[in-house]
């Protein structure tokens, strides 16, 4: 475990250099994710899960879609079939989508608390919180549509935008 933590620390200079876009041209696409949209099977159930269950602040949204403000991005919920039609892809594909969403917190205790909140809201815990091989502490849950969320504490460095101060 210590070796894994050291290898992550040894990568930091590389990561820091990559953050400067050194050697890359200026493109029209900026390095940000404006919104993550999940294609869901039951929109009211998903709105309930993210809004009341996890406490995400919901924005005023037109019918058939729901938007939640997150720190640095938005979460959109849209019907799975409608989202597939919008992207001109097959809505019937199944299996592991090869993606997980991450929510980083400041301590192992917070990982446990968020995992408990998600489970109480109806999430399925797919991997209980535990020490990781890279020196952190993390667990996974899936939302009502099977989208995977990792809840993690990384003691080596903070991941993502800083939490807003109240």
Characterise the protein shown here.
- The chain is of the alpha/beta class.
- It has one domain: 2,3-Dihydroxybiphenyl 1,2-Dioxygenase, domain 1.
- Helices cover 30% and strands 27% of the residues.
- The protein has helices at 2-19, 43-53, 80-87, 108-120, and strands at 35-40, 65-70, 73-79, 100-105, 124-131, 137-142, 148-153.
- The strands form two sheets. It has a four-stranded mixed sheet, covered by helices on one side. The protein has a three-stranded mixed sheet with strand order 1-3-2.
- Strand 6 and strand 7 (148-153) form a beta hairpin.
- The longest helix has 18 residues, at 2-19.
- The chain is globular, with a radius of gyration of 18 Å.
- Residues 1-15 have low confidence and may be disordered.
Itemize the secondary structure elements and their pairings.
Blueprint: H1 2-19, E1 35-40, H2 43-53, E2 65-70, E3 73-79, H3 80-87, E4 100-105, H4 108-120, E5 124-131, E6 137-142, E7 148-153
Parallel strand pairs: 1-3, 4-7
Antiparallel strand pairs: 2-3, 5-6, 6-7
């Amino acid at each position: 475990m210590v070796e894994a933590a050291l290898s992550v620390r040894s990568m930091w200079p590389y990561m820091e250099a990559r953050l400067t876009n050194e050697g890359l041209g200026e493109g029209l696409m900026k390095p940000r994710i404006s919104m993550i949209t999940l294609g869901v099977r039951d929109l009211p159930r998903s709105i309930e899960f993210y809004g009341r269950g996890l406490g995400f602040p919901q924005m005023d949204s037109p019918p058939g879609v729901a938007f939640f403000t997150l720190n640095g991005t938005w979460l959109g919920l849209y019907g799975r079939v409608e989202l597939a039609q919008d992207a001109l892809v097959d809505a019937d594909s199944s299996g592991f989508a090869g993606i997980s969403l991450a929510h980083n917190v400041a301590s192992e205790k917070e990982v446990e608390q968020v995992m408990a909140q998600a489970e109480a809201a109806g999430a399925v815990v797919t991997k209980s919180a535990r020490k990781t091989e890279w020196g952190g502490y993390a667990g996974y849950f899936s939302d009502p549509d099977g989208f995977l969320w990792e809840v993690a504490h990384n003691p080596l460095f903070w991941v993502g935008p800083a939490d807003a101060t109240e």
